[in-house]
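Suppose a colleague, Dr. K., hands you the sequence of a protein chain of 260 amino acids and asks what its three-dimensional shape might be. Before reaching for any lab equipment, you can write down a predicted structure in token form. Begin with the sequence itself:
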Amino acid sequence: MKALHIAATGMRAQELNVEVISNNVANLRTTGYKRQRADFQDLLYQNQRRVGTATSDTGTIVPTGVQIGSGVKTAATARILTQGTVTPTGKDTDVAIRGEGFFQIELPSGDTAYTRDGSFQRDANGQLTTVDGYPIQPGIVLPEDSRDITVNAEGVVQVVNANGDVQEIGQIQLARFINKSGLEAIGDNLFLETPSSGAALVGNPRDPGFGDLQHKHLEASNVEAVTEISDLIAAQRAYEMNSRIIQAADEMSSTVSQLR
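The predicted structure, expressed as tokens, is then:
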């Protein structure tokens, strides 16, 4: 029976849906994480009586027709790039983005990755890097004798040097994309540019179209536990209903096979 195959596609879809939800919940406390949502599409239809076909020589047509669907498929796992809660940390190398934009990160391969995670560290050379040691771009090097690091809303980095003077040492720039949902996640809170995202548009914080920075703060994950739990319950019920359809189709097939 076709119902077996159709219900099986529904079970597979909800299994993937639960996997997406579980990944969101697992990253509930991941800095700068953006939640995902599974999107589905119906599969091809079999026309047993095509809508709009003529039923007589006088021009009457079929008003609705008979179409039998063949199930569901996963169309996308869209990433929801809404703003997460900005929370204070007190650490002088933590920076949060409020609004549009990504920090630019140089990978060991020389490629540029993008992140919303502003939990930066100072390496042995005084350079600001990610927790994995990848430097931000443009590079920011903190002098060895510097103290009282400040980053203003426009991304200007200043320190107090050994003489007690305020010294400007660099400018943090941001990148944004026409289709930021088209970025490819590679783990470690990093994204890569793709043909779908378009080329990176680089500018300073508070430039037109860009957000600003908040020093000594971090952006939390935008995952909402209540939303994920309600989505999980809905996915579980949909999976259960599809499994019952398979059970009903099996019972119907068993009835037919027992006919004498």
